[in-house]
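Before a colleague's protein record goes any further, I have to sign it off. Alongside the sequence sits a line of tokens, each denoting a local backbone shape. I want your independent view on whether this chain really folds as the tokens say. Where you disagree with what is written, explain briefly why. This is what I was given:
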Amino acid sequence: MNDTSREMARLAIDALEDKKAEDIKVIDISEVSVLADYFIIAGGSNRSQIQALSENVEEKLGRAGFPVKQVEGYDTANWILQDFGDVIVHIFDKENRLLYDLERIWRDGKQVDLDTL
């Protein structure tokens, strides 16, 4: 894991907090997967908020020189996945967050305290 990944994760978290994301979790998956260093999982209460969260993350990271590589699920906004390479952001509605339960699936990764990131 590197400082760039940490910076990207911190920027994404700040962007999510700016738009009042719910229950933000960060999982360090660097030792259990080659997909990325961090998964960031957050919730939104409705389609408009979930899309606003996604837009804010993309804008903040883009301005910092970290363009999004791929976005999935923006139109339906029940689960938006944003791939920034070393950081993957998942923004869920309540129902789909419970259904897919990424925190359980990726429990081999390390939960990261937002304040120490």
Observations:
- The chain has a mean pLDDT of 95.
- The domain at 3-116 is CATH 3.30.460.10 (Beta Polymerase; domain 2).
